[in-house]
Design brief:
The complex is a heterodimer of chains A (225) and B (110). Chain A has 225 residues and is mainly alpha-helical. In chain A, 36% of the residues lie in helices and 7% in strands. Chain A has helices at residues 9-19, 54-57, 82-90, 113-120, 129-132, 135-139, 146-156, 164-170, 185-189, 196-212, and strands at residues 39-42, 45-48, 65-66, 73-75, 78-79. A three-stranded antiparallel beta sheet of chain A has the order 2-1-3. In chain A, strands 4-5 form a two-stranded antiparallel sheet. By secondary structure, chain B is an all-alpha fold. Chain B is 86% helix and 0% strand. The chains are: A mainly alpha (225), B mainly alpha (110). Chains A and B meet through helix 10 of A and helix 1 and helix 3 of B.
Chain lengths: 225, 110
Amino acid sequence: MPQQSSQTILDVVTWIQRHLDAGLSYRFACRVGMCGSCAMMVNGIPRWTCRTHVNKVMRDNQLTIEPLGNLPLIKDLACDMSEFFEKWTDSKGYFQGSTTRHDPVSTLSPNSPQRRVADAATECINCAICYASCDVVNWNRDYLGPAALNRAWSLQNDERDRASAERLTAVAGDAGCHQCHSQQGCATYCPNELNPTASIAGLKRMVAKAYVRGELPKQGTKRDA
Amino acid sequence: MLEVRLYLAQRASAAIMAPLVLIHLGVMIYAIQGGIDAAEILERTRGSFFWGANYGLFVIAVSVHAAIGLRNILREWLSLRGIGLAVISWIFFAGLLTAGLRAVAAVVLS
């Protein structure tokens, strides 16, 4: 195929669909690294294809483009993301406040230590690159995975959230944060340079402290072995 | 909350082992400077509460730590779950503890 300057992997896939195989299935939306839709394996490494330049990842003038790892395949380069997003729900990865729209807007200092920790984990675009690069997900299909746990950590450090014990219980089962081996595949490949490994380590400490203080239920979760 | 208890037990056992390993290495390096044989070692360890407690505690910590680590490996590599996983882990723990405490008894009590 014709090579151009600043050509991205997504450009390559689109060119193939338009010129070689009109039935090729893949997923993309924004093309500028915002939506997290277009992640694929490129020469064996998970990457956001809209922001990955061909000339930076091509080896021996060849590219191997495959569907994202650790996820069921729908067709060609499109994976089923259901389990990835269901695990966000399983880990209580949604904000649960205690105020209503009638209450005054909360005032948060962007410089408070807790807010800084939350901010460091916030810029996730749900691309599932961390999920595809995680060996623990590969070994244990129930493992919640780096993205969901990173989200849980971010919310645990949100001063407005009120679901702390409930969320810590959800991430403390045998598919939760304690399964992480800190191999840092997620941190290595995250396109937004987040560090889910550090977030998971924070969750481990937070869960342990809450357990010792008696703030967690003794019986555990449905995922406990 | 089994995972949390195991996490705490593994960290606590690691924290116990670390200084004990340093004591072991330090004493070993110091003791062999002038040359020492088995009889001389046993002469110092027999009847010693300190060495019995030191190595007894080490054996307990190792047994806990290694059994939890093995449990993780069995679960990830062999997909073992439930009662089978628990039984193998407990047997491994009991085996390590028995063998270790017998060794400690041999150099302290005999």
